[in-house]
Amino acid sequence: MTRLPDFRLETHFSRWEFTARHHLTASDAQTMTMAELLALAGPEDREAWDTLALGYTETFGDPGLRRAVAGMYERVGEDDVICFGGAQEGLNLAMQVLLEPGDHAVVLTPNYQSAETVPLSLCEVTGVALDPERDWALDLDAVEAALRPNTRVLSVNFPNNPTGTVIDAADFVRLAELCDERGIRLFSDEVYRGLERDPARALPQAADLSERALSLNVTSKSLGLPGLRIGWIACRDQELRSRLERAKHYTTICNSAPSEVLARIAITARDRILARNRAIIAGNLPLFDAFFAEFADLFEWRAPDGGCVAFPRYLGPDGVEEFCTALVEQAGVLLLPAGIFRSELTRTPADRFRIGLGRRDPGPGLAAFADWLRKR
Q1: pTM of the model
Q2: Which of 20, 127, 152, 327 could tie 334 with a disulfide, CB 3.0–4.6 Å?
């Protein structure tokens, strides 16, 4: 594995995430306190928490946690799940297990940077861009044209980060079929599943569609619990799961025992947590709609189909990079400019920025943003 480049998003956050007064680009839904989460625990999980011994846990993950995760799927059992220290570890190890020099991967863009840079460190990669001029539509023909005889992985992310787009279910099923027809692994980042504006648009999960596919998920995004650092991959291929476990022996070995119990409480109560978080986003959307309507000469706004981030266009003459820098330095309002999401594989729009919709009470941040714009 070659040296990875700096992670632009995390480097930017290291500078600004905890110093900016208004974090308007958060990618997670509203979190909760320990007391709030424990109040959702059933008797068995509460007993597990109260009597927890702080020893090592199983590399695959706590059996109770894996049972809870399996309950999210239609065709996945607890033995089809392996847990990780967040989604990043799962993505990283999966690519290292699935790809080697001489292989080829296809990655949809824009995306979370490591979805592109980790495969690029291992083999040749082709990017297929969502089309910003057609509401970030996916061109299935372009995906099929990018596949080669040595393609081993097709990596996708829906609801998409940073655009918030959700493709049609029929198109997603076709992606799984294309992969199965050609012996390719569909790697599906599903961390925003459950936050669709229209629940009927929730896509099937890749691990339910194909025994070869991998579904990546985490407690961080839709459930709003990034502090737990618990992610997982669901895959019905036993041999591949064993390879993932052996790869994990070189990283975290096992997860945090307290986090695993808390994660299984959250996943068991996911319907209540997701309903709460969807309600927060639905309540926030009119505030964002009104903000962007007031400044329609500066922004092109489209609410996301799913997830809790959107990727508006900035129309000002100074460019989005200079704009976002001035905004955080002068008004303390943090956004992520397009350069954070630039791709080495495809042309990506240079006039966009990511804004987050999932945190409670964005009013003060939007007010500071608007006041700064009015004074420019």
Answers
A1: 0.97
A2: 20
